[in-house]
Write a structure and sequence with these properties.
Layout (H helix, E strand, L loop, with lengths): L3 H15 L9 H6 L3 H17 L2 H4 L9 E7 L2 E2 L4 E2 L10 E5 L4 H7 L3 E8 L13 E12 L16 E11 L13 E10 L32 H7 L2 E11 L5
Parallel strand pairs: 3-9
Antiparallel strand pairs: 1-2, 1-4, 4-7, 5-6, 5-8, 6-7, 8-9
Bound molecules: 2-acetamido-2-deoxy-beta-D-glucopyranose.
């Protein structure tokens, strides 16, 4: 169960992480209480920057501006924080997923009940230097966003800021396969995306199940030497990315 304090901590943590360098110039409470769109676009830009630095944009996904932040938590000490390194043995069971709307306000309320698809992909299979099996599909799950509190919009239409949108009753389309980076293959990037339907439907999504985990079922690499993966699959299913997060993990035998 995620408490409001956790949301604040995660949110402030993400913000601070995304702003490393100038992290101490803005107190966390100010970040949390400030629900203006400047903060939200700053956060989006920082996430985008981390994704580019890790070459997730444009290798894994085309450039996009995240509108939500994604929390993936395996246990209280093991969450995805835009490029932290976690041990494979801590990742055995599927993480719980929450989405946060950094803009606060009405936007958040209207997102409750929307339908999302969460994916986990490894573009570094079997290694980042030799991604001949890339991408490896580790998880596809669809679910509705449900606010974890009973808060409803106030008379002015505002919502509480930094409320998580927990993805409940996730329906697994491709069952979770725990990251298991082979020996001597260095650090792998494990990348989460949350997708929404491009047409804005609130109906439950039923995206296709790849016929194989390797290459997400596509023949790969293609003629152009490009590997195939979540980007091809999302396009085929009319899905657009709205949030991302990632970790690194490696086998302890290197
Ligand atoms: C909207 O997109 C979803 C996902 O591709 C699809 O399942 C659904 O049929 C579409 N709905 C409409 C009304 O086009």
């Amino acid at each position: 169960m995620i408490t409001p304090m956790d949301c604040l901590a995660v949110f402030a943590g993400l913000w601070l992480l995304a702003n490393s360098g100038q992290a101490l110039t803005l107190p966390a409470d100010q970040v949390v209480l400030g629900s203006n769109n400047d903060d939200a676009s700053e956060i989006a830009k920082k996430i985008q920057k981390e994704l580019k630095e890790a070459e997730i944009i444009p290798t894994v996904i085309d450039d996009f501006t995240p509108s939500l932040t994604l929390q993936a938590e395996w246990s209280s000490d093991n969450s995805a924080l835009l490029g932290n390194t976690l041990k494979p043995k801590k990742l055995q069971d599927a993480p719980s997923i929450s989405l946060y709307d950094p803009s606060g306000g009405n936007e958040f309320c209207t997102r409750s009940g929307k339908t999302y698809v969460v994916t986990l992909t490894d573009p570094d299979a079997p290694s980042r230097d030799n991604p001949k099996w890339s991408e490896m599909c580790h998880w596809i799950a669809a679910g509705h966003g449900v606010s974890t509190s009973s808060s409803t919009p106030t008379s002015t239409g505002d919502c509480l800021f930094a409320e998580p949108l927990a993805l409940t009753e996730l329906e697994e389309i491709m069952p979770y396969k725990a990251p298991g980076p082979p020996e001597k293959t260095g650090k792998h990037r494990y990348v989460f995306f949350a997708f929404a339907a491009e047409n804005g439907t609130t109906d439950k999504l039923h995206p296709s199940k790849p016929k194989d985990r390797q290459h997400w079922g596509y023949d790969a690499p293609g003629k152009d030497g490009q590997t195939h993966g979540v980007r091809d699959w999302a396009k085929e299913n009319g899905l657009v990315p709205v949030a991302a997060n990632f970790i690194y993990s490696k086998n302890k035998k290197q």
